[in-house]
Design goal:
The chain is of the alpha+beta class and about 425 residues long. Helix content is about 25%, strand content about 30%. The chain has 11 helices and 21 strands. Strand 2 and strand 3 form a beta hairpin. Bound molecules: coenzyme A. Belongs to the acetyltransferase Eis family.
Length: about 425
């Protein structure tokens, strides 16, 4: 077995791409096709691709993308979005993941990216590197026959338009941009993303059947204010329709649009079950049904993880629920976020500077990261042991400041066939 120290962690070149893509596919159980490399190449122009190489054999993959994250209050911060993390089965548990993470976080910090984010495939992996679970997701399965939307009449779906991929592609990105401006936890979706989502990108498109698309049109402005993409499969049993419908993307900027698009999906004829993935756990969507209990939670989980790299920049970019001040002693084994920081913030803005004053709270970077978008509470994190109250009342103040009225949400769409295998 090769000594791990001689395994090289380095940037990937054009020549490395086929082997890198194949190694990643092995790790993610995705069969390699002739389009796999083209698909990576088309979407990775500005990305940092890292590989672990044993001699000249690729045994580890890691990618980070320059992204944008909306934080509470609506500011947008540049973030490093990590993906495609894998280590070959022959080389696991020898520290290669740790070395790739360390290389990439150092790069992000040096480039001035104040945060890194990722979707963790496995919970136990990333806390040790200072990431904390910053958003959660609920996945629903709606029993159409219990939803109490009377199929004998038409449920109120006014404003909904069935459209094709081209019409959708013209209107949907602007709807998403309106949501992203106000939704803390949202990431940018670029042009390549939309081409991919609508099956309009040449690489790999042929492998996917085209989904169905709908828009909601605001009657006051005539503009689209909601989007829906779904797929369905015709299924019958004993002459009864039992088709499943999988919502792939549902984004709306008004309650009216959200309600109409959900009702439209739930009243598609022949459908018995609607799968609704990746919502914030406090989503209102089930409440648009006649009986909200028809929407059963089939998965409830942490989702996007976040890592604070630049404490003053991150904390001063967001707004806070109430006016207040806190001195935070941030611990960070890797050093990036560490220090004693005076945070002064409120609903209109915040400042965060280094201080010599006595701290109110000692908080590990993992907990600060979990707290950052407002999804967790300092009181809960203290009970788990990573945060310590050094001045009475500091936990309650941190809760009042950091918590947000609605939970953060990082909207995700499900692309490709994989979804149909079922909930995660
Ligand atoms: C997850 C994966 C990348 C780990 O790679 P690796 O090189 O074996 O990880 P490392 O040896 O650097 O391990 C780092 C630490 O994580 C721990 N760890 C690694 N994989 C783990 C797992 N699946 N469960 C729990 N702990 C794990 C190691 O024990 C080690 O702990 P330590 O720091 O206390 O010593 C690899 O197993 C893999 O490719 N899995 C399939 C794809 C995947 O899940 N990728 C993650 C996508 S977000």
């Amino acid at each position: 077995m090769t000594d791990s120290a001689v395994i090289d962690i380095r940037a990937v070149t054009e020549d490395d791409l086929p082997a890198w893509t194949r190694t990643w596919g092995n790790g993610y159980l995705r069969p390699y096709t002739e389009h796999s490399v083209d698909a990576i190449r088309a979407t990775a122009r500005q990305d940092r691709l890292i590989g672990a190489f044993d001699m000249d054999r690729c045994v580890g993959t890691y990618r980070s993308t320059p992204q944008e994250l909306t934080v509470p209050g609506g500011a947008v911060l540049p973030v490093s979005a990590v993906s495609k993390v894998s280590v070959a089965g022959t080389h696991r548990r020898r520290g290669l993941l740790s070395r790739m993470v360390a290389t990439d976080l150092r790069g992000a910090f040096e480039r001035g990216e104040p945060l890194a984010v990722l979707d963790a495939a496995q919970y136990p992996l990333y806390g040790r590197y200072g990431f904390g679970p910053a958003t959660a997701m609920a996945w629903f399965e709606i029993d159409v026959h219990r939803a109490r939307l009377d199929p004998g009449r038409t449920a109120d779906v006014s404003g909904v338009l069935q459209v094709d991929a081209r019409e959708y592609l013209k209107a949907a990105p602007a709807v998403y941009e309106r949501l992203r401006a106000v939704q803390h936890g949202a990431l940018r979706r670029d042009e390549q993303w939309w081409l991919d989502a609508t099956g309009q990108r040449p690489e790999g498109a042929a492998e996917r059947p085209e989904p169905f698309f709908a828009l909601h049109i605001d009657p006051d402005t005539g503009e689209a204010d909601g989007l829906l993409c779904f797929s369905a499969e015709e299924t019958w049993g004993s002459m009864l329709p039992r088709s499943p419908l999988w919502i792939r993307d549902l984004v709306a900027v008004s309650s009216r649009a959200e309600a109409a698009l959900l009702r439209y999906a739930v009243t598609v004829d022949w459908v018995a079950t609607v799968h609704l993935p990746y919502r914030a756990p406090d989503t209102l969507l089930p409440l648009w049904l006649g009986d909200p209990r028809a929407a059963r939670v089939s998965a409830l989980s942490d989702y996007m993880w976040l890592r604070v790299l630049d404490t003053p920049r991150a904390l001063s970019a967001r707004t806070y629920g109430v006016e207040g001040g806190l001195v935070l002693e941030v611990t960070d084994a890797a050093g990036y976020a560490a220090g004693r920081w005076s945070l002064q913030g409120g609903p209109d803005g915040a400042s965060c500077v280094r201080t010599g004053r006595a701290p109110d709270l000692r908080i590990d970077v993992r907990d600060l990261s979990a707290l950052y978008l407002g999804d967790d509470s300092a009181t809960r994190l203290a009970a788990l042991g990573g945060t310590e109250e050094l001045r009475p009342g500091a936990l309650a103040r941190a809760d009042a400041m950091f918590r947000t009225g609605r939970r953060p949400w990082s909207p995700r769409a499900v692309l490709g066939r994989r979804y149909q295998a079922g909930a995660p």
